Amino acid sequence: MPIRPTLFAILLAATFQPDLPQRSSPSLKAQTQLVIVDVVVTDNKQNPVHNLTASDFTVLENNVPEHIKSFEEHTNASPAKSELPLVLPPGNFTNYTTVPADAPLNILLLDTLNTPNDAQIYVRSQIRLFLERSPPNVPLAIFGLSSRLWLLQPFTADPRLLEAAVDRKNPRTSPLIDNPATGGKTDRLSEKMVEAKAAVNPYVVQRLQQFEAEHSSGDLQLRARYTLDALNQLARYLAGLPGRKNLIWFSGSFPISILPDDNLLNPFAIAGDNSDKFRQTTALLAKSQVAVYPIDARGLAGPSVYSVESSGRQYDPTLDPNLGRNQDVFTNHLNDAIRQSADDNSTMLQMAEKTGGHAFINTNGLADAVARSIEAGSNYYTLTYSPTNHANDGKFRRIQLNLRRDGYTLAYRRGYYADAPAAAPALTPVTVSNAAPHLVPLAAAPTAHVADPMHNAMIFGSPVPTQITLKVLVVPAAGNPEATLASGNIASGNITGPYRRYDVTIAADPSAIIFTPAANDNHQVSLLFRTYVYSREGRLINTSSRIDDSDLSPILYERALHTGLFFHQEISVPVKGEFYLRIGVHDDTADHDGAVEIPVNSVKDLPPLTLPPVTQPLARRR
């Protein structure tokens, strides 16, 4: 659909007041070939080590020595300085998040998906204990994980708000844990049959055991997928925030792989492996300067087979010997518990090591673990280097730091992927004039099935990604309510008019977007813009999606770098009811996202746009 001339002039020339503050937010950017590494140095008592210099460190990438370009020590000696909240005019919105300046950010993740109820209760009591003891001016944000990610409390140092967030909800029961009350092994029908000495064909019991194992395996794999999706969302939400972020993650268990079980008829039917997605997620966390501090919410606990809640009858050697398996039940269950615990601990240890954090396992002092995580994550060094290997080949580069002093332990991310530019969508090439960008409807994209790159970014109520800073202006379109949807809108489900049409004008920060050099000094950019309409219950009812696959002339490229990239969409919203807009941008080449979410009630009474907004270049993060 062509853009109206008056609006197009606005998009080319303007963004919206007020301008966003400047931030210095170091990140790994392929364009600048700068690698940033945060390193925590501790002594043999796990106390932070101060006053080291760049000459104390050596850096190797794939065993090749690198020159340290910059070096800085960070300490928690000075209190965090609060950043003034943004005051935006009516109809203006942004995903720019105000956070304390010059201080690491600490995030508590309460994982109810992978944690039994009894451990959840203990975690909350330990967090309250930490908040009672914590020093003032320590900014925290609190997230919750069930089958999706929830922001329970944005960054604040106010202990009253933090305590309210912890107390806000009762422990949630995870539907994907075998025994949601304690996390132990639930008595299964196949075991009940053995206990009852039922005259059942052994093959029937084995088939039942196979079914139960496959059902349990499916739940484990679903938990792993939900968890990795949530961590991916967190990484994208935190990516645009400056400096180091310490993610303190309370979880009862998190296996990423499920091994075959030789005791089953089909040992490989339960096998599952999320290791590729795990590697991608940990790489994204490290790239976003997020260090993960997993804390085993179960504390110090032995295998569930020793639990007093277990009757022990299934291990009675006097049960029917014809089944031929009773003598091995206890050993098998014990081995399963040990193997499962090892898998859980291994995942936590890997997550911590790959991101530069530390895992706390087999400890009941969870409040102390939080304090130690924040202490370590607030006293660190940041160094940068430009790798001698300039190839963006997508391969993993291993980072190794050495200290010229003995007796110290170093925690830092262990590498990164030298991102290769992604292939642009296979759209029909169209030369872009200086008059208008080339806008291709989503329906024109290839029909082959691919994973939706914006799925997590567009989930209703989820934390908005900040990899691309956005300014968005939303106002009602001129005219009366309409009986039909705006052109290009696609309804989801059965919705009826009348509708109010809204103008959505998006300004995107170009510093987080990759422009690929092309012929004639042009630059290509491939962006996906979406506006979703959600009901109050979170039901998706209408969408507007476009691909902007542009070949920018030198003039348009320079203008984009100076003022930002702009786009316009029209979206129809039912007049009656409570609705929300989720507006997002995705850079296909960089795999970066930005999004905002707004209640329609906040803009429905604004006057239609008649004059261009006050212009200002879009502030860019470096």
Topology:
Blueprint: H1 5-13, E1 35-42, E2 57-61, E3 64-66, E4 68-74, E5 92-94, E6 105-111, H2 117-133, E7 140-145, E8 149-156, H3 159-167, H4 189-195, H5 202-239, E9 245-251, E10 257-258, E11 272-273, H6 275-287, E12 290-296, H7 326-355, H8 366-378, E13 380-385, E14 396-403, E15 409-412, E16 415-417, E17 439-441, E18 470-476, E19 490-491, E20 499-508, E21 516-517, E22 523-535, E23 540-552, H9 554-563, E24 565-574, E25 579-587, E26 592-599
Parallel strand pairs: 6-7, 6-9, 9-12
Antiparallel strand pairs: 1-13, 1-15, 2-3, 2-14, 4-13, 5-18, 7-8, 10-11, 14-16, 17-23, 18-20, 19-23, 20-24, 21-22, 22-23, 22-25, 25-26
Helix pairs in contact: 2-3, 2-8, 4-5, 5-6
Describe the structure.
Helices cover 23% and strands 26% of the residues. With 622 residues, the protein is of the alpha+beta class. It has three domains: 5-25 and 423-602, no CATH class; 35-75 and 379-417, no CATH class; 105-376, Rossmann fold. The strands form six sheets. Strands 17, 19, 21, 22, 23, 25 and 26 form a seven-stranded antiparallel sheet that branches. A five-stranded mixed sheet has the order 8-7-6-9-12, sandwiched between helices. Strands 4-13-1-15 form a four-stranded antiparallel sheet. A hairpin with a 4-residue loop joins strand 22 and strand 23 (540-552). The radius of gyration is 27 Å and the shape is globular.
